[in-house]
Amino acid sequence: MLLISVIVDCVSKSYSSGLFSKRYDKILSDISLEITKRKTVGLIGPSGVGKTTLAKIIMGLENPTSGKILIDGTDIWNAPSEERDTSLKKIKMVFQDSQGSLNPKKTIKQSLYDTVNLMGLDASTRESLVLELLDRVGLSSDIFCRYPHQISGGQNQRVALARILLVKPEYVILDEPTSALDIAVQAQILELLNNLQKENNFGYLLISHNIPLIDFMSDEIVVLDKGSIIFRGETKEFTEFNSLKNKNSFKV
Ligand SMILES: Nc1ncnc2c1ncn2[C@@H]1O[C@H](COP(=O)(O)OP(=O)(O)OP(=O)(O)O)[C@@H](O)[C@H]1O
Ligand SMILES: [Mg+2]
Question: If you count Cβ atoms within 10 Å of the first and of the last residue's Cβ in the chain, which end, N or C, has fewer?
């Protein structure tokens, strides 16, 4: 275990099965993994297995029923609020539905400026910073005046990445970052993600259903099934596990 990492330590999560029900459905059971800088952990598993729920618990958006999330040593669910907030600034997420994560009533420019305005920069520095980051993610200011529904899935993903670059986190959770994109755009986004990781030393948690994508991008792979980890290991070990599992009709 490293102190400079995100540690998911034995996390479980249950939801009440109905408004007046005393029954609980266990979604996640004793999940442990570690996200380290410059490396990618691929998280894979069937739909509804709890991947996004785990991501939200790591981001401090959902509380775990038991277990801990340590961000660089800080137990975010038990730390004083100031320490928790400082730790949570180190991690950002590109949500499964990037279009939905942008405010539909704001133009792309307004959404980007909401983040830059908090940084206490003068107007011309703000503008050049935003333009530089748009350029870095392969967009131009042509999209500034458009609303999220007026740009493509790939452009939405790029805007989400530009917003992340503005706040310079240490760790990034990518929840199905390419699922809505065609093959050519997928390849561009993956190359961009790889380059951004090298430049910024990001530690990635990459969530996907797509086995070849997880295989290509990850240093370590974690497979969830029925709420539990059924495989955790290096990518080369996963290839063997997957071929064995395929014989037993493993599907994600
Ligand atoms: N707030 C909630 N209350 C009750 N159940 C929930 C809640 N949020 C998620 N769930 C349930 O938890 C399970 C896991 O959902 P989650 O979104 O984490 O799955 P996922 O693995 O990300 O699926 P997908 O691959 O389709 O995105 C689902 O059965 C979902 O219905
Ligand atoms: Mg999900």
Answer: N
Distance 94 CA to ligand 1 centre (A): 17
How do the domains of the chain map onto residue ranges? 6-90+169-247, 104-168
Kindly state the tokens that stand for 34. Answer: 């570690």
pLDDT digit string (tens) for 177-226? 888 778 888 888 899 999 999 999 999 999 998 898 999 999 999 999 99
Closest ligand 1 atom to residue 15 Cα is 4
* CA 141 / ligand 2 centre spacing (Å): 31
What CATH number does the domain located at 6-90+169-247 have?
A: 3.40.50.300
Entry pTM: 0.91
Q: Which ligand minimizes its atom distance to the CA of 225?
A: 1
Ligand 1 close to Cβ of residue 52 (< 6 A): yes
Predicted local distance difference test score (pLDDT) of residue 250: 54
Among protein residues, the one with the nearest Cα to ligand 1's atom 1 is 15
Phi, psi of 231 (to 5 degrees): -155, 140
**Does an H or E element contain 115, and which?**
helix 108-116
Q: What length does the chain have?
A: 252
Q: How confident is the model at residue 15 (pLDDT cuts 50, 70, 90)?
A: very high
Rounded Cα gap, residues 226 and 30, in angstroms: 12
